[in-house]
Input
Amino acid sequence: MILTNIDYVPGYEVVESLDLVKGSTIRAKHVGKDILAVFRQLVGGELKEYSEMINESRQISTGKMVAEAEKLGADAVINVRFTTSSVMSGAAEILIYGTAVKLRKT
Output
């Protein structure tokens, strides 16, 4: 599956636009890691626990979007975008979306 954040795939022609596809997840960190992040916030530096959580969430959300596109028979998802929102302290939603398309090599 080809994923791109532009509205075309170089070397291919979009022959059919199938549908909007999306994937999302809401994740929270273990309370112990949350406490570690609070201490790190006091002294400064990267909040590795939250970086890890967001990266895992992106992978899960992307997998869900790709699965939705595959069900439609898509060759690619174009105009891919991520959005993040805080649901509560220590929990975030990651949403990824794009347009599932069929392609033809040019």
In short: The helical segments are 31-43, 48-71. The domain at 2-105 is CATH 3.30.110.70 (Translation Initiation Factor IF3).
